[in-house]
Amino acid sequence: MINYVLFDDAGRSDLLPLTFTRPACEVRIGILTIKEKWEIRLKAVISYKTENYLAEKFPFSINERNSSVFINGRVCPDDVLVHEIKKLKLSQSLYKGHTLIAYHGKDAEKIQSKSGATIISYPWDIFKNNGKELETDFTLLTKGRRSKPVSKTNKIIGKGKIFLEAGAGVECAVLNTVNGPIYIGKDAVVMEGCLIRGGFALCEHSELKMGAKIYGPTTIGPHSKVGGEVNNSVIFGYSNKGHDGFLGNSVLGEWCNLGADTNNSNLKNNYGEVKVYNYTQQKMIGTGLQFCGLIMGDHSKTGINTMLNTGTVVGVNANIFGGSFPPPHVPSFSWGGSDKLEKYELHKAFEVAQRVMERRNIALTDTDKKILEKIAEQR
Q1: Which of 11-20, 248-257, 321-330 has the lowest mean pLDDT?
Q2: What residue spans define the domains of the chain?
Q3: Fold of the CATH domain 124-377
Q4: d(Cα 354, Cα 361) in Å, to the nearest integer?
Q5: CA–centroid distance for 255 within its chain
Q6: Between the N and C ends of the chain, which has fewer C-beta atoms within 10 Å?
Q7: Residue 65: pLDDT band by 50, 70, 90 thresholds?
Q8: 8 Å CB contact between 120 and 133
Q9: What is the pTM of this model?
Q10: Distance (Å, rounded) from C-alpha 189 to C-alpha 224?
């Protein structure tokens, strides 16, 4: 038997603020998190090797009688990569260019991977590669299975793939599969009047509100509620964008809420390259992209009519409101908007988080609080 462990390397810091509260392998891209992709393909329970302050929630656990293979948590698997990793012998390591992909033992012989697997290096890589990963995950999850029948009240355009899990409800919607598949998770609901262009994934127990307009490739994680207009974005889960407003080329963590008519810009007026705040370099860096919207860490919120500029980065547990654009980087545990950002007191943040999580019948644990306290110290 082999122990498989997903490890965080130095590249984890370039994925902040999304990885403040999770290892890189818990990032959702496509339909599944990176860890879920590996567990399905390797048919194994996988543990973590991450930052000390995250280790209690995401533990390192191996059977010392078995040898261990460590896999970079920023790397999404494909068939070639899985085959290469299964073939790794003791004292061998696998690289893609200069990036360490996996290793089996120390002082390892270096082997170059021939895989074209997705590696996420920056937050925008998530929405940039979401279409590819959505197609891959769709095939992985639906192979050899039959979809729940699609109601005749819906209008289907194209001959692409649609899969509805048990309990999914889709009525009076337009489903366009020309550019990608559409996956509706267990007990998820697409309400009347929704317009969906694949690829698109609505994960379990999530809702697409009436009249929503979705441009793929977009993923809405589990236990989320989304309305308005969304384009090429990924919402990790347990987050709400329940009303009208535009979200484009963006990534939202968990327990976020965008107030009614919150809009983000995803294109500069001069059509130039979008720059975003990078936590590693502590400055704005180029993305190489013309379209890049909002990157938002867990537990952050916006008030109604909030306007967010192109490439805005919001940390963890920020509360944004006001009549003008907030700065391009809103630090974690901030309260306010364009006029002034004050420190969001920890005990107040805990009270809000607890109320929000209780609505999903999930408790804010002491472990969660310790993680948030550590993030607040780094503000």
Answers
A1: 321-330
A2: 2-112, 124-377
A3: UDP N-Acetylglucosamine Acyltransferase; domain 1 (2.160.10)
A4: 10
A5: 12
A6: N
A7: confident
A8: no
A9: 0.97
A10: 11
